């Protein structure tokens, strides 16, 4: 009886020796394929860059002009200052009536930042105090519903002012800049249909629309906070406009 079972045992053993390595090879191949696919995906993913507009931006270069005690953009110190996430000119375009402003706040004792927005005639459009609540990093400020919509074709001036223990003073450290709302042309509108936030950032960047480039990339990071590729794109974008000093600072949600 054992003689009859032996051939069956031998056949089973042979099949096991054939099948098990095949399964291992299959798993390894699948793993390698997944890794390769991820590498390929990263290679073909959109690359965000910002091409400054040749025309249509605010034509008054005084947008970065200082009031008393303006903070230099590169200064980060104890007591610190607000650093807006803007190109060096502190001028930028938006297509939104309620754009998002991004600024960096260092770790300090300041609890509030004063934000103001005025039109071309120096008429006050909106102002508010932004609570920091001990925050340190890159903060997003969306122009709220109770603020008037920015009008297409008009320039506006904004300012961020640090409020310390002595309150708001004429010489409080401040930064100023300009924003202009433009209309999205039909070609860009068509391209923006059914795209991801990352792809949207690429399109806005190529068209020189700073505020939406930054906001779209921030949205992509919010949706995928652990995506190292998006983190790299964010840092690359900030470095491209001279913001190396804060490129790796945390983006607060």
CATH architecture of the domain at 75-246: Sandwich
Strand content: 15-25%
> How many H/I helices?
5
Query: H/E order of the elements?
Result: HEEEEEEEEHHHH
| CATH class descriptor of the domain at 75-246 | Mainly Beta
Organism: [Phormidium ambiguum] IAM M-71
Region (Disordered): 50-69
Protein name: DUF928 domain-containing protein
Description:
α3 runs antiparallel to α4. Strands 2-8-7-4-5 form a five-stranded mixed sheet, with helices on one face. A three-stranded antiparallel sheet has the order 1-3-6, with helices on one face. It has a domain at 75-246: Immunoglobulin-like. The longest helix is centred in the N-terminal third of the chain and has 43 residues, at 2-44. The chain has 253 residues and is of the alpha+beta class. The protein has five helices and eight strands; from the N terminus they run αββββββββαααα. β4 and β5 (124-131) form a beta hairpin. The protein has helices at residues 2-44, 186-191, 197-206, 210-223, 228-240, and strands spanning 83-84, 91-94, 100-105, 112-119, 124-131, 137-142, 155-163, 174-181.
Summarize the structure.
Residues 50-69 are annotated as: Disordered. This protein is α+β, with helices and mostly antiparallel strands and 253 residues long. The chain has helices spanning 2-44, 186-191, 197-206, 210-223, 228-240, and strands at residues 83-84, 91-94, 100-105, 112-119, 124-131, 137-142, 155-163, 174-181.
């Amino acid at each position: 009886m054992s003689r009859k079972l032996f051939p069956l045992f031998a056949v089973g053993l042979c099949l096991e020796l054939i099948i098990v390595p095949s399964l291992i090879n299959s798993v390894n191949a699948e793993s390698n394929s997944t890794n390769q696919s991820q590498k390929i995906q990263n290679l073909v993913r959109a690359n965000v860059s910002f091409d400054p507009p040749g025309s249509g931006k605010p034509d008054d270069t005084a947008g970065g002009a200082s009031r008393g005690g303006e903070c230099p953009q590169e200064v980060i110190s104890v007591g610190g200052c607000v650093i807006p996430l803007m190109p060096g000119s502190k001028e930028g375009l938006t297509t939104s009536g309620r754009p998002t402003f991004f600024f960096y706040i260092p770790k300090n004792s300041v609890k509030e930042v004063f934000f103001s927005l005025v039109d071309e005639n120096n008429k006050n459009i909106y102002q508010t105090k932004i609570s920091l609540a001990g925050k340190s990093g890159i903060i997003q400020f969306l122009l709220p519903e109770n603020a008037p919509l920015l009008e297409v074709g008009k320039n506006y001036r904004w300012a961020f002012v640090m409020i310390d223990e002595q309150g708001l003073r004429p010489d409080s450290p401040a930064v100023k800049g300009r924003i202009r709302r433009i209309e999205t042309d039909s070609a860009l509108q068509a391209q923006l249909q059914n795209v991801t936030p990352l792809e949207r950032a690429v399109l806005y960047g190529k068209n020189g629309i700073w505020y939406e480039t930054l906001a779209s990339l921030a949205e992509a990071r919010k949706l995928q906070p652990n995506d190292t590729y998006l983190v790299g794109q964010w840092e690359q974008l900030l470095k491209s406009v001279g913001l190396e000093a804060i490129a790796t600072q945390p983006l607060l949600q």
